[in-house]
Amino acid sequence: MAAPLKILYVAPLDERASSLYRLWALERAGQQAVRLNTQKLFGAGFFWKLNFWLGTKFGLGTIVWRFNREVLRMAREHKPDVMWGDKLLFLLPKTLDALRAMGIVTVNYSIDNPFGPRRDLGWELYMQCIPHYDLHVVQRDQNVLDYKARGARDALKIQTAYEPTIHFPPPAGWSDKDRDREVSFIGTPYDQRAEFLTELWKQDGLPVVVSGGLVWKQHLTAEAVAGIYRGQGELFVDDYREGIWRSKINLSFLTHSNQDEFAHKSFEIAACEGFLLVERSEGHLQRFIEDEEAVFFSGLEECAAKIRQYLPDEAARTRIAKAGRERAERSGYHNDRQVERIVERVREILPAVARVKGSAV
Predict the structure, then answer these.
(1) Spatial contact of 64 and 35, defined as CB atoms under 8 Å apart
(2) Model pTM?
(3) Which residue, of 8, 212, 244, 339, has the fewest CB within 10 Å?
């Protein structure tokens, strides 16, 4: 049996962050983690915005200086085998080179797509770092090609995953009598989701319920806010899981502006044994059997038709939801299996990085 890896884990570690869930999976597998919570290093307000711009665009500013100094300090103190970072926008190429010279394998995990059409801010310095990491963990086939075209040493595609300690089925006997959300979407208003959901509610007359951040109020009309938006903010952890449980139909969408092949939410809904009605894609078709483990739609008309078909049919929804959960467990759509795949690749890389350290002595 291989000895545990010592991992310097550099990521947001709020209880709502998926990066924390991957850390838990590493620890469940017996790896030794040293935590560096990036959320405690960064401030807020005007100076944060100024530092963000200076840091991510030019590699300048107090945040960049403090962050890189702290990463190197912890690496020298703890002597890890691996530095595992989660979308580190303030890391400098020379810091990665210094870690490699110490014999530390550097891993970059990013759910987001720096090459996609969404054009999020803050990728400039990150792009400079791509050739300096030992491994990039990505979510799309296209990203494997994108990263390697930018000089990446290695890129591994895995999938987003559910966290088994948070995303699990409801208590025995749960049924429609416990569900007060008919056609439910819990999430963000990326792409044209606000317009799509408004059409389902207003034009098709379907009982839609939307939960998520207050940003929805900027994307929905005042009429739609009053008609379909529920709550006063995002649902996290227990509230998120229970929102899925309380929904007769759980909608899930691809983020097209991020060029996603599948939706993270789809695996969480399935793990919670929620009935999943999800946008059809090759990525979803590869992971769920259509109409047996999940139900798919392409476009507004088909989505409305599937809702009308399944909303009154509790038995069919229950059967499909149960099969979807079993598939998610059986096929390893959870953090434990996806993190295991990354660790396997890291172990393959370790000897080469150890030789780099040896040659530098």
Answers:
(1) no
(2) 0.94
(3) 212
